[in-house]
Every structure is written in C-alpha cells, then in structure tokens.
Write a structure and sequence with these properties.
178 residues; alpha/beta; 6-stranded parallel sheet; 7 helices
Length: 178
C-alpha cells in the first residue's frame, strides 16, 4: 500500500518518523492535536491550605513515581488521573501522600479536575504531543512540565519546565509554583 500523506501530531514526532523512515520525508505532514472547544478559562484561583496537584497519567513516561517522591513533605493533595498500579498505590502509602486516584472518567469530569486544581503535574520523560499542556493553559492553571523538546514545542513559554529525571528539580518546581 502506497500512501500520499502521513500525518503526525508534532514536529518532534515528524523528526522521529523521518529518522525511522527517511524515504517518507516528503509525505509527512504535521497536524497538531486540537483541544476541545468546551475548555473555558476559569480564571486564577487562590491557593488554599492544602493545594491540589493534578497529575495526568500513570504509565512509566508520565513519571508518577518521581512525582510521588517529589511531593513528599509538601502539604498538598495529589490527584492522579489514570489507573494506578499496586506498586504506585504502595509508594503513595509509604510516602504518606494524601491522594486520590480516578480513571475511566467522562471528559467533563476531567475538566472539573482541571478547574479545581492549583497546579497541573506533567513532568513526562517522553511524549508525542502533550495535550494536557493545552488543556491546563486554556483553563488557566499553571503547569509543571518535563523539560523535553516536544513539550517546549507545545507550551512555548507557558509552562514551568523541570528536568523530569531529577526529583529535587520536580520538588522545587512544585514549591515555586505553589
């Protein structure tokens, strides 16, 4: 099967595909992910006594284990969207983190978590795009993001970037944003 066009979601993904399939270079077209038009700016929010950090994703590249270690000692509630593993639950308990875990949600529920949080946690080690950055910014929530090429492409200067492999850097990012 010969195709006329190959679409990808970011310049970063385009470069990766060109490296893997160099003969297809002229066929690749970037079409960035759109975000839902129902996203409404919620305005700034005063941070309470127990700030809410919303973390998106539980797969290895979403970096939840380092986030758990990074929020140890920070008075907050960590809300995790995505089904956590038993090991991740155990790490939360060992770290004495106040947390909630939600998954299989309606998109309207996800939007409500964005509206109610104080900071969005997205220190990914690898992404193809990074839609949570668009969603968090559209609603008006600060976002801590992994300092990786594709997230810079998506966020520009609208995120607080940290080394996603450095627990101390993630911790300091949360402290500064809160």
């Amino acid at each position: 099967l010969i195709v006329k066009k190959i679409t990808v979601i970011s310049d970063f993904t385009c470069k990766e595909l060109e490296r893997i399939v160099p003969f297809a270079k002229r066929k690749i077209m970037v079409i960035h992910n759109p975000f839902c038009s129902s996203l409404q700016y919620a305005g700034t929010k005063e941070i309470g006594q127990q700030p809410i950090i919303l973390h998106l994703g539980t797969k290895v590249n979403k970096n939840l284990e380092r986030v758990i270690k990074a929020v140890e000692g920070i008075r907050c509630k960590l809300i995790v969207l995505g089904k956590m593993t038993n090991d991740q639950h155990e790490l939360m308990k060992i770290s004495k983190i106040d947390y909630e875990n939600h998954y299989d949600l309606l998109y309207s529920d996800v939007l409500e978590f964005y509206r109610n949080c104080d900071v969005v946690s997205f220190p990914s080690t690898y992404e193809g795009f990074g839609l949570p950055i668009l969603e968090a910014n559209a609603i008006g929530r600060p976002i801590l993001a992994g300092d990786i090429e594709v997230l810079h492409e998506v966020a520009g200067d609208a995120a607080y970037f940290v080394d996603p492999t450095n627990i101390h850097a993630i911790n300091q990012g949360f402290v500064e944003l809160l």
